[in-house]
Amino acid sequence: MAITPQRAAVIGLGSMGYGMAISLRRAGLVVTGCDVNAANVERFVAEGGQGAPTPADAARDADIAVSVVVNAAQTEAILFGKDGVADTLPRGAVFVSSATMDPDIARRLAARLEPGGRLYLDAPISGGARRAAQGELTILASGRTEAFARARPALDAMAAKVYELGDAPGQGAAFKMINQLLAGVHIAAASEAIAFAAKQGLDIGKVYEVITASAGNSWMFENRVPHVLEGDYTPRSAVDIFVKDLGIIQDMARNARFPVPVAAAALQMFLMASGAGLGRDDDIAVAKVYARLTGAPLPGAKS
C-alpha cells in the first residue's frame, strides 16, 4: 500500500522560509508556500512547489504548518488574523512557530490555539539561510509529545539537530533567547575588535586569520568578519533583528529583576547602527558605526 506523503504549509518564504520549504520538498513532502511577496511564491511554484494566496488557504489540508516570520505579532496574525490558519488547519495538525519571541507570548499563543484541537510546537530556528536550504538547521523545540510525533518527518527534513526541550511551549523560545543574547554580544564584540584593529593600522585580513586560530575566536567572528573584509553588508541577518531580539532580552531580564549589562551594551550598539540608517544592513554593520565614529578604514564603511 502506498504511503500518502505528509502535506506541509510554509508561511513566510523569505531567505529562511524558502530554504525550509525547499528542504521539505526534497524530503518528499507535498509543500504549499505562502508569502506577502507574490514573487517569492511564484519562484517556489516554478521550482515544483505549490502556492497559496493566504495562510488560511495554504494550511487548509496541511498536516503541519510552519510559520517562518520575524516576530510574535506576525505569528499571531498568521494564526488568528484575517485569513489566519487557526480555523482552516485540520484538527490534529501541528502549527510550528519558528519566530523568535518572548516565551510568555509563545505560551499564550499555544493556549489560544490548542483548545480547537490543533497542536502548537514552539520551535525557533538557528543556522542561517544556507543551512535552511540544505536542511541542516538547528531547531530548539518544545511542545506536546504528540506534536513532536506528528511533526517529526518535517522537522527531520529541515534540521540537522532537533532539540526536544520540554513538553510545553515557551521552553524553546527561552532557549532561543539565550542563544540570541550570546549571538548579539558576539557580533557587537567582533565589530568592535575588527574596527579597532583597522584603526591600529593592522592588516585586517591577517587579523582574521590569526584570531580564528586563537582563543579569542567566536563563531560569530569567524562567520561575520568576512563580510567586513569584503565590504559586503548585504543582509544575511539584519541589524534590526538584533534590535528586536536584544530588546526582548531586556524586557525578560527586567521582569525577572536580572541584570544583563553586557547584553544592554550590545543593544545600544545595534540601536546606534539602526539609528544611523543601517537597520537593514547585515548585522555586522555595527562595525561601520565604529568606523564612522573613529575613522577606522574598513572596506565599504562609508557607503
Q: Could you explain how this protein is built, in words?
A:
The radius of gyration is 20 Å and the shape is globular. 53% of the residues lie in helices and 13% in strands. Strands 1, 2, 3, 4, 5, 6, 7, 8 and 9 form a nine-stranded mixed beta sheet that branches. It has helices spanning 15-26, 38-46, 55-59, 72-80, 103-113, 128-134, 145-158, 171-199, 204-211, 219-230, 239-256, 261-278, 286-294; strands at residues 7-11, 30-34, 50-51, 64-67, 94-97, 119-122, 125-126, 137-143, 159-164. Helix 8 (171-199) crosses helix 12 (261-278). It folds into two domains: 7-168, Rossmann fold, CATH 3.40.50.720; 174-294, N-(1-d-carboxylethyl)-l-norvaline Dehydrogenase, domain 2, CATH 1.10.1040. The chain has 303 residues and is an alpha/beta fold.
